[in-house]
Task: structure prediction
Amino acid sequence: MDNEKYKDIAPYKGEDFMVALSRLVASADKLQGFVSNLLGNDDPRKDLLMDFISTSAQKIRCYDDFQRIITAGVLIPTIVKSTISEFSTSGTENLDPELSYLFVSTHRDIVLDCALTDYALMLNGKPLCQMAFGDNLITSQFVGDLLRLNGGIIVKRDLPMREKYLESIRLSEYFVETVTEDNTSVWIAQKSGRSKDGIDMTHPAIIKMLYLSQKGKGVAFPDLINRLRIVPLAISYEYNPNDINMSREEVAISEKGSYSKKKYEDVVSMMKGIKGYKGRTHVAFGTPLSGEYEKPEDVASEIDRQIHLNYRLWDTNYYAYDYLEGSSAFKDRYEGFDGNAFISRLSHLSNSVRNFVLESYANPVRKFLEASC
Result:
């Protein structure tokens, strides 16, 4: 694998990693600001965490070290403890620790989806993965360093049409080579952007680009799919901290035809997703795809089928479904749940935004029912 070919988008490696790590630790004020943002200015753990990061830097030599010692080792457990009431996983028995995989995942949170994937892998004794991030998140050198030290792969979004297509081919080529040649797993979202309506559907174009990046090498489509060992990944949150602002955005697009994001809106959403209460959270790994798949649509369909069946449904999902349908079909699934409080939280919203929020919780139930038929 020619690492130089992907140096501008790949996670830091070798000397570049050590230089970036030194740069991060030297940015004490920015690091302090990040930790304060994460925990709050008055949290007594703040100074302890800063000291831990500074002293641990001497032991870190690669992104796997950074993840295990800092991110999945300390930062994510801190987030889980303060914002998640119960964290669970399933399906890791389907993963061979000697093999690499392409995780194609649901996408509800900008950062936590992939961060919790690595945390789940670590808890279950599996190798960690690299993860794809949009460059819209990189608002500074510090943020870029933090992402790439964590195994982040940079997805360049704001490009002219021709350049965007060529970059998509190169990015897909990187994904394939990382999994099949470097024996390192990769996390990607099943489509561009978060699933704001709660409908988790894989965009076949993502699968098509993977194939186009290898077509010139004479790789047949079914062979590529088998070599990639695609694992559908369903991450479900009982509560989505960004449910209201995401719904407002989608309703604005529907009613006005467009929505203009403020300069740091994605960063604000990222921090809200990290710090907001999520209730119970589950990461479900599916079964690696194998067989004679002939078309990207067939692959996308199987990924979706597994995601819809493996997605852990919570009382919020069942209650929203019954509420919108005017039924009591799943009444036993939310016994003891305070439905009035769940609905009253949305009382200040317009009907269209309120309904969109409820639909975002109800749609995973609908998709589960469709997949079960």
Summary: The two ends are 43 Å apart (CA to CA).
